[in-house]
Amino acid sequence: MVRQAQLWASLITLIYRLVLPLSNVHSAYPTKVEDINDVVNGYNCAKGSVPWQVYFTYNGGRWCGGSLINQYWIVSAAHCYQPANTLVAYLGEYDTTFTESTEQAIQVAEVIKHPNYDSTNQNNDIMLVKLSKPAQYNHFVSPIALPTGCAAAGTWCLTSGWGNTVPDGVVYPRVLQCLDLPIISSAQCQQTYPYYYTANMMCAGFMQGGRDTCGGDSGGPLACNGQLQGVVSWGPSKCASKDAPGVYTKVCNYNAWINQVTSNN
After folding, report:
1. Average pLDDT over residues 164-186
2. Which residues are tagged catalytic?
3. 93: left (phi over 0), alpha (psi -120 to 50) or beta
4. Residue among 126, 107, 128 nearest 116 (CA)
5. Strands 43-44 vs 177-184: parallel, antiparallel or unpaired
6. For residue 9, is pLDDT > 50?
7. CB 99 within 8 A of CB 90
8. Rounded to an integer, what distance in angstroms lies between the CA atom of residue 263 and that of residue 257?
């Protein structure tokens, strides 16, 4: 995936952490952010250690991640939106190169973006995905709790996905990748991304660079102390850059909306 522009330009080009199913390249526009979808310098997750992780395919091709929150509903990123009939959710996935006995492939029944999602700066980058039949819970498939409060700066969290594993070029992993990383303060996040940051976003990662989510991890979880605190959203045009941590949708701001949608649909 091509990641254009320089961090210190007056208008920073950012990248959604998304995988395009038909091409590894998409253009970034100078006043827009772009999606992200993979983990740079993470490690192989232990099989079954992230049982809420969801893997979406779009028309049969690699797409976004998500987090299972109950038997019918998944939280993902709004920039991952596609019509329900084009999406299949894979639960219990680990190695994407062959069929294991742990997967549950379930057709998506409904996709609901946040009504105030703004694609120009990725504010309110969150959506809910309803499954056409309930997930069956086991050691490899189980939900993650919604946050009971917002996580503090310095809290260590876990992000995961099958996205790009290198900042230059494209190398997708076979197995689910994990990365432990701390939440960065809102003040530091706003200072880093003054043109894009909103109170509905949070930064997590390492200011020295080297480790980050990347293209292909979009929509995936940022899990902190067993709660879903973040959704992988966007980041700099070159993943794992110095002074440019990944940005996540701040899930604690959306509990009421999530509960309303999942109760009424």
Report:
1. 82
2. 79, 125, 218
3. beta
4. 126
5. antiparallel
6. no
7. no
8. 10
